[in-house]
Amino acid sequence: MKVKEVRVSYQNRPHAANPIRDALQTLTGGGSVSVEIESDDGLVGRGGSSFGRIDGAPRTLAVLIEEILAPKVVGRDAEQIPAIIESLKVETEYHGTEGLATFGISAIDVALWDLLGKAHGVPTYQLWGAYRDRVPAYAMVGWSNWTIDQLRGQCAAAVEQGFHGVKMKVGAPTLEEDVERIEAVRKEVGPDIKLMVDANQALTLTEALRRGHVFQELGVGWFEEPLRADDFEGYAELTQRLRLPIAAGENLYSARQFREFFERRCCDIVQPDLRRAGGPTEIRAIGALAGAFGVPYASHGGGPAALSLLLCVPTAIFLETGLRSSADGFPRLENGYALAPQGAGFEWE
Ligand SMILES: [Mg+2]
Predict the structure, then answer these.
(1) Per-residue pLDDT tens over the stretch 53-81
(2) What is the domain count for the chain?
(3) Does the keyword field hold Magnesium (predicted)?
(4) I need a labelling partner for 338 at 20 to 30 A (CA). Which of 85, 167, 237, 324 fits?
(5) Distance 300 CA to ligand 1 centre (A)
């Protein structure tokens, strides 16, 4: 099966009237890029990428895929996915593979694995070999700019929808504000729902230690990205000094960075992002490393490809999604577990 054509398109999202915020960023809109890869026997695999902000990013990525990556994919044996991905890393090394180029490589990787699943007529996770057929799901429902009433309403809705846990943003100007919001959510969801907090890289090591000790006493499930993503030394110290589990990894690129993160014992829970970590091919390697180092694995973001990977990573613990917009939306949930995709490739229905 050869790759006949790579098609790329992009879309911008209109700016929201009241954009959501975390401690670092205002997510004004952004948009998405779609990739279709057609084989010489007429099958089509689909992948893509998304941006929460930066209006120019979707068009920039579409050009990068079309002019730099796609020419290296057309004509290749579509079953030799790791070889294709490796050649894209080599091609982009000159201007830096990390960053936007990796978003593009990941989108192509998702489309190729979708295509291969379709060629075999099975869900892609079955080609990889699964550890499980379902994984617990939690909802990220607590943005920084929401009032406490909004926060409580969204968290209550997540519990109502059957999620096993909720996550909210922290890193407010003062610790007291963080505590007030955490206590309000805990009161709303009750003692049995896992409550995680995410500081989106906003704190210093000293402040993360100070807040971490308080969050620990409040029964928080994990403390996510307290420090800048590249502060490996800070993460190692924090992980050693806090009993509260440290979760991180959504801003790391490639298995090599994750290998060092694991070797230096920088986190208690690792959270690769499908776009930045480098797509399913790279994440399968990262998942194997997480297994070898005994580090629990939770996805950053959800979607059928992220769920498919969780089914196959030995130490997977949690799928992250948002609130479901309708009862029949992705993922199919049963008792708070996201169920394995059923269609060929990454088709989930
Ligand atoms: Mg996060």
Answers:
(1) 999 999 999 999 999 999 999 999 999 99
(2) 2
(3) yes
(4) 85
(5) 7
For ligand 1, the distance from its centroid to the CA atom of residue 225, given in whole angstroms, is: 6
CA of 235 to the centre of ligand 1 (A): 15
- Residue 162 sits in a domain whose CATH number is 3.20.20.120
199 C-alpha vs ligand 1 centroid, how far in Å? 7
Sequence-ordered list of residues with C-beta below 8 angstroms from that of 27, at least 6 positions apart, any chain: 19, 20, 21, 52, 53
Return the percentage of the chain with pLDDT > 90, whole number. 95
**Exposed, middle or buried, 200 (CB in 10 Å: 0-12/13-18/19+)?**
buried
Expressed as residue numbers, the domain containing 257 is: 126-339
- pTM for this model (two decimals): 0.96
Q: Is the peptide bond before 331 cis (omega within 30 degrees of 0)?
A: yes
Residue 41: HSE in the Cβ half-sphere, 13 Å Cα cutoff: 9
pLDDT digits (tens, 9 = 90+) for 236-246: 999 999 999 99
CB 182 within 8 A of CB 211: no
**End of a domain among 120, 137, 163?**
120
Q: Please indicate, yes or no, if residue 348 is contained in any of the structural domains.
A: no
Rounded distance from Cα 157 to ligand 1 centre (Å): 20
* Statement to judge: residues 108 and 136 lie in one domain: no
For residues 318 and 136, give the distance between their C-alpha atoms in angstroms, rounded to a whole number: 5
Q: Which residues contact 257 (CB under 8 A, 6 or more apart)?
A: none
Q: What's the 57 CA to ligand 1 centre distance in angstroms?
A: 20
Angle, helices 100-120 vs 57-64, to 10°: value is 60
